[in-house]
Amino acid sequence: MLTPIGGEMIMGVFFKNFGMDIFAQEQYFAFLTKCVCEEGKIFPGYACTYFYKNFGRAETIVTVAPDAESEQNEVLGFNTHIMGNCFWKLRVSTMGIGSKKHDPYSYSVIFNDMDGHGLIPINIIHADVIPSFLKDDVVRMQVCAFPLLIHYFQDDSKCDDSNMETVMGKKLVLSEGVFPIGLFGEDEANKDVSILKGKVAAVEEYKVPVEGSEENFFCVTVDTPYGPIDIAHTADFVIPEERSLIRKGSIVETYCVISGDVALDDYQSGAVYDEENELRLLRSCIEHGDFERMTGALSENAIYKNAVGPAQIIHTLKGINAQIDREVREKGLRYYSYMGTLAKIENDPDGVQKYPLGRRCVVLATPETDNYNGFLLINRDIEGKIKEIETCTNKNYRFRLDKIPVSKMPYDDIDFKPIQLEREESEWLDLISECFSNLSFDSSEFYFGMEPEAEIYLVDDDGKSECILKDKEQVFKYMANKVEMMRRKDVKPRSEIVEAPGMDEKHGVMVSGGEEKFLLTIDISEQKRLIRMKIAYR
Q1: How far is CA 232 from CA 87, 163, 219, 239, in A?
Q2: DSSP per position, 296-347
């Protein structure tokens, strides 16, 4: 979807934003990794370890975890961030974890604001020090943004005259804040890309104090509805005529990846081992199936059912999870988990209360949200690690569930009808024929149902075809302009599905009106999306 003018993204690394182009080269990248691991600060996660080192305000983070077979430490990934004082407090949205990155402990999370509004994809730094990113978890993080493309404007009026993005042939005009454009695109590599717009509150200039880094970079603080955010880029990211506008009071609009460091407050030294955090970790592993994250929280002799030790327990939990997955597929069941507190016990036949009231637990339910059929508790050793996971199905216990705010998707309060993106060839022909009859291609089904690389070919009298357009947006504009010209000439076209003799396809749409008459045939992709249209004039 985007072509970064400042250079490529390498994994989760934005070297060019700091003027550190030299480290994009393999030999220097290896040197930097070694330097960070040997000299950096350690942030232990629940299953991995992060090595952190700053070079001035530029921060580098290396993710390391033991290999399951060799037990040797293995470098899994690399991230960059900016040291700063911009903090956002957000709530995890219904969408939860978004795109996965290059390793199991690097990913983006989709957030709402604290009122449940907005969709904000953020690349999480030091993700494994937080026990969970489940719906409605509240997370505070230090934030920054790395532009892929950026523009500066003197004021809002000049900004609204720009043409950073068009959708269905129309310009997007954004209010200040974040628009998660990547979430609505087809390119998985850009799912965490947003458009960010705001007023510049401060500008500072820095240089990375390492040999081979000669270019300064700007750290531009921008006000947003969620709080201020620092944006890092060199002068090369900005076209020459806009560089004088890199100043306080200007308006900035940027395609960017927002980055949030969660290793602060309670987690400023890494993962926290107490009952609350370990139960939240257990619930997260149940929800996401990534039980390897329990590795660091389990004691060497931990017990769960008949399993002893972290390896056996994780193997058992994964087996149970696989069985649940099969039941979900075969029987259509749903499983739910909640954080809760034991509140009271009723009708205990033995008069013995095994678990004291007030104990925190993970409550399980199936197949409906309020059909509670058991709970999990943990017992901990003197070092704070889990020495036992207990399962209880005693129906006499009553729970007080944590009050969970209800996150909403943007369309929850309206009569939402999903757009049909996949169609059989005959259905696509019917849709296109209807668009011509209505003299309007302003159709979400037509636009969003096209593959990104959709094409238009013109076919001559000899049957030879030539590609004239190759891009979803351009194809849409072409078809929209075609019917617009008919409308201006007051042409009411006739459109019908006919056989297509002499064409590779069996059927097409014959359009006739005024002086124009042409046959339009189509190809669809394996995903049943519109990928090619051929137009033969008669």
Answers
A1: 16, 22, 5, 16
A2: GGEEEEEEETTEESHHHHHHHHHHHHHHHHHHHHHH----EEEEEEEEEE--
For the packed helices 425-437 and 472-488, what is the interaxial angle rounded to 10 degrees?
Answer: 40
- For residue 367, say if its preceding peptide bond is cis, omega within 30 degrees of 0: yes
d(CA 473, CA 489): 25
Given a contact cutoff of 8 angstroms between Cβ atoms, the answer to whether 478 and 487 are in contact is no
The 8-class DSSP code of residue 235 comes to G
Distance from C-alpha of 236 to C-alpha of 332, rounded to nearest angstrom: 54
pLDDT reported for residue 53: 92
pLDDT of amino acid 277: 95
Residue 470: predicted pLDDT: 87
Q: For residues 495 and 438, give the distance between their C-alpha atoms in angstroms, rounded to a whole number.
A: 10
pTM beyond 0.70, yes or no: yes
Burial of 395 (0-12, 13-18, 19+ CB in 10 A): exposed
Which two structure tokens, joined as six digits, stand for 279? 């139960």
Tokens representing 365? 């339910």
For residues 363 and 158, give the distance between their C-alpha atoms in angstroms, rounded to a whole number: 54
Give me the torsion for CA of 85, 86, 87, 91, rounded to 10°.
-160
Q: Which two tokens stand for residue 195?
A: 């458009």
Closest CA to 112 of 206, 158, 177: 177
Residues contacting residue 536 through CB under 8 Å, at least 6 positions apart = 458, 459, 503, 518, 519, 520, 521
- As beta bridge partners, residue 532 has 455, 523
Reduce the secondary structure of 359-428 to three states and give it as a string: CEEEEEECCCCCCEEEEEEEEECCCCCEEEEEEECCCCEEEEECCCCCCCCCCCCCCCCCCCCCCCHHHH
pLDDT band at residue 221 under the 50/70/90 scheme: very high
Q: Within a 10 A sphere around the Cβ of 216, how many other Cβ atoms?
A: 13
CA separation for the pair 9, 2 (Å, rounded)? 11
Nearest to 136 by CA among 406, 413, 410: 406
Please state the rounded mean pLDDT for residues 251-261: 93
pLDDT tens figures, 505-535: 678 999 998 788 899 999 999 889 999 999 9
Sort strands 229-233 and 138-153 into parallel, antiparallel or unpaired.
parallel
- Between strands 41-44 and 193-206, the pairing is unpaired
- Tell me how far CA of residue 479 lies from CA of 165, 401, 421, 456, in angstroms: 19, 55, 18, 10
Which of 62, 30, 24, 29 shows the shortest CA–CA distance to 43? Answer: 62
CA dist list (Å): 9 to 99, 210, 465: 15, 21, 37
Q: How far apart are CA 477 and CA 459, in angstroms?
A: 20
Strand partners, 153: 251
| Phi and psi, residue 246, nearest 5° | -75, 80
